[in-house]
Amino acid sequence: MMGMDRPVHVSLSTTDMDEARSFCRKLFYGPLQVNPTGDVSGFAFSGDVVMLGPITLGEISYGSDIHVTIADLETAYHVLAPVTGTLRSRHRGTVVMADPTRAAVYRPVGDIDLEWPGSCRLLSVKVERAALERELDATLDQRIVSPLLLGASFDLIDGPGRTWASLVRLLLAELRHADGLAAQPRMASRWRDLLVSGLAMTVEHPYGEEPAGMQGPNRPRTVKRTLDAMHAEPWRPYTANDLAAIAGVGVRVLQEAFRQHVGMSPLTYLRRLRLDGVHAELSRSDPWQVSVSEVAYRWGFTHLGRFAGAYKSRYGVPPSQTLRERR
Question: Can you give the pTM of this predicted structure?
Answer without folding.
Answer: 0.64
